[in-house]
């Protein structure tokens, strides 16, 4: 998809701070860090939302998520983590390339202070 910013990140046309990459998946820091280490995990194929995803893509996407979550938890010394995914404008989705938010949680505040 030409105009999709996450496809541009996958293609290297836009920069990102990458956390993880394999054949099917890219993980990179969210440009607007809700907490320290806030990461997005995306499929390398353009899928708009969960409603468009088939189970093979879901398997590929979620397979590395525990490894990614543990790497972030360790790197940023997080105490916990929220995983969340918005599907559709009415659910708060703003970028229409599927993405899973990994939001580390800390014993106080957002981990920055
Ligand atoms: P949504 O509301 O669609 O679930 O979340 C979209 C997320 O994408 C937001 O948290 C936003 O900060 C992030 N985002 C939007 N544009 C960019 C970008 O160019 N680079 C990165 N790394 N994150 C982005
Ligand atoms: Zn895309």
TrEMBL record:
A motif (Histidine triad motif) lies at residues 97-101. Residues 5-113 form the HIT domain. This is Histidine triad (HIT) family protein. It comes from Siminovitchia thermophila. The lineage of its organism: Bacteria, Bacillati, Bacillota, Bacilli, Bacillales.
């Amino acid at each position: 998809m030409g105009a999709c910013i996450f496809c541009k990140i996958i293609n290297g046309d836009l920069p990102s701070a990458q956390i993880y990459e394999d054949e099917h998946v890219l993980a990179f820091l969210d440009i607007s860090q809700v907490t320290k280490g806030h990461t997005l995990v995306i499929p390398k194929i353009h899928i708009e939302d969960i409603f468009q995803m088939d189970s093979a893509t879901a398997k590929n996407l979620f397979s590395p998520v525990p490894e990614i979550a543990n790497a972030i938890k360790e790197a940023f010394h997080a105490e916990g983590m929220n995983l969340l995914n918005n599907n559709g404008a009415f659910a708060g989705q703003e970028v229409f390339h599927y993405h899973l938010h990994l939001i580390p949680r800390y014993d106080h505040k957002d981990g920055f202070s």
